[in-house]
Amino acid sequence: MDGGMVMETNYKLTLKIERYDPDTKESWVQDYQLEAGRILRFTDLFRKINNELDPTLAWNSSCEHAQCGTCAVMVNGRPLLACELLVENAVVQFGTTVFEIAPITVAPVVRDLIVDLEQAYERVNQAKPYIIKPVENFNKGNEYQISPRDLERYVDATRCINCFCCATACLSSQKTFLGPNAVLASIVRLMDPREEAKKERLKILYSEKGIYRCHTSKACSFVCPKEIDVAHFIALAKEGRFESEEGD
Amino acid sequence: MSGIFSISSTIKCDVLIIGAGGAGLRCAAEILEKRPGTDIVAVTKVANPQKSHTQTAQGGMAAVDPKDPVDKPVYHMFDTWKGSDCSADQNVIKKIVESGWEQTVWMENHGMHLSRDENGRVSKRTFGGHTLGFGETSAFRCVFEADRTGKGIMDNVWGEALKGGTSFINQAIATELLFTGDRCTGAVIFREKEGEFVVVLAKATVLATGGDGQIFKVTTNCRQNTGDGLAIILQSGLPVMDPEAVQFHPTGIVGPGILASETLRSVGGILRNKGLEPFMERYAPKMKELAPRDLVARAIETEVREGRGILNPDHNIEHVWIDLRHLSDYIHEVQIPEVSSFFKKFINLDPKKDLCPVRPSNHYQMGGIPTNEFGEIQKNSESLISGLFAVGECASASFHGFNRLGTNSLLELVTMGKVTGEKVVNCLDAEQPGRPKNAGEKTFSLFSGFMKQRGRDNLGQIREEMRILMTEKVGVFRTEEGISQALETLKELKERADKAALSSNSLIMNQDLIQRWELNNLLVVSMVTAQGALNRRESRGGHFREDFPERKDQFNHHTLAYMTEFGDVKLGERPIDMSIYEEKGEHYEKFGMIERKY
Asked: What is the CATH number of the domain that holds B494?
């Protein structure tokens, strides 16, 4: 029984990492050669580089189990969470042991792989990620009753962690579009029966920077680490189908 | 050398909140609800409050529904008291438990997406250590948002704080608390992205910096949980309480240490050893897999130590299995989708078909900055410091005593956040404090000390050695000999760290500089943890001394630890509040120094 996972394999990897030094404003690509076991994650690799090769390499992470979205980076052109990319999966998925690693493109780079997420979050804040005005609760002191079927329609969209992988992959410009994750935050509350301020929400969604900037490439759904079908929710929003429908 | 640093600006506000996780922002939301327009500055180490450790809590939040025909607050109080190994404060237990449902409704009414039952009501499930009738049978007392309850709470309180106009300083650390006499008047903040020091002056300061799990090698804690709040408190000459009370979650995933929630066991997951024996039957015949965390953690460690573990070659870590193969697809896909997918994602195993490797992982600090039941910080066992509060995992009121029950931490952080918020509002009519003359001196001397070193030792290596040391010597099993060795080695590690050079002296987003500062905090917190563990010559809750395996009445008190000079720990005591027992109301006899058997 315990033989099942006793597989000792080491991979020889090359990580080509985009660097940026804010003190000198210099940018360059640095190669790191390292050997790693099959189920190490890319965050483990960055830590390995810090502890064994180069303590100056800056990268960001927090929970390191795909629940906070801090460690999003580009690996061979694809935005993903470094904490959930296993070495052996990366080798299979990309068909190589050479990985080009770059910061995500949603905000200016602060240093190396760290971008200014504060600027990226500005767009989420504009979409108001909270209940603007709650509907009157006729059952004061109690929870609102929401049927599991109604919740089911939008619960997947509440799983978004704002890692900005979708915004990185999105074909629309980040200057003109709030971005898939930001509009998702507003769509959730349009589908949530507890939100009274639906008109204000629609105004945000149908604004100059709203969902009509979306080109329906579905890149957002394709790259989402939480496997949320972001494009499905944007499609519902384009059709105005927020509320539960008869026979839905 | 410290002449190269300066304070770039001074920010004046009503309330400074250091740490913008669930507790800190629940506190902010309460203040804003009671006094709209309050000027709050919230500082967080992470890139955005949504990246806080609260975000990762899975299982749920305990709350007794007054409409429940069988559950009662007194049962929850009893479970918490028993679970704490008779070391929690009963005034705090009563306050928090009685507030549980109100807190749930508040969260729900403010937009949390709690899972529902068929009637559209908030669903409840069972959780380890939660019972009806004083231990008779499992209670359905845990409300939840699938297996991402912490995220639900975090999104909610962040949203509320944002809506109320809180100013956030993201990616920043608090390096020094400011005092005018016995009153806290704010803090020095280092903004990592800008490489700037700022002074924030406030009428009230709330510490909500989270836990210290990074002192251990295997931990479920986030990368930034380095005990900063505890270190800054000690540096200010104030005590921390019960640092030796550390919880090891029985089932961390081998090897990243990621938490495999208790939910896996509450939905029917079975722990098995090398011979596939369901060994919990031997350790807790009644509760089995649902026994409290410390009992399960020691059971697993014992299995491993007695040769019934399995070795994972990649991580070189011994473990046991959790068997989820017999559970229905519905359970896998609806009740535990995220936790179940962790195994697939992080170790390439399918829990529907494969046994999954788990071992105890550091999870929670029950101790912390000692506060009263309103989150006000204690100067010593008798008096308080004005204008200074602590909430969440960095604080200890104490609701958990020496062992926390699952789902009680989220309840604590929202309740104490709220209660403390109410108390903070009382400070708002005070005068705006002026800036102390020496503001920044301590910080500048510390940072210039880091920057002038030229030694070749590797800081990352020192940190790893410390984490392995703490796991081996001050972990699930502790002995006099082991802890004494740890204390000596910690002093050596501190000396080595103090000589090691930084890889760069830049101030802008210098990860090595921040980790150097964190290493100081980790060493400080390790030191008081080990000293507390050495002094407590008994076993209680999460603190298990192999050489003193029984609980002893002479230790029926909290530990207070002070340390202004590294290695020179001074210990004191705080009595355990037993007001429920002393008031002699109904069932009071359940709240004496009872035996903790399951």
From this structure: 1.20.58.100
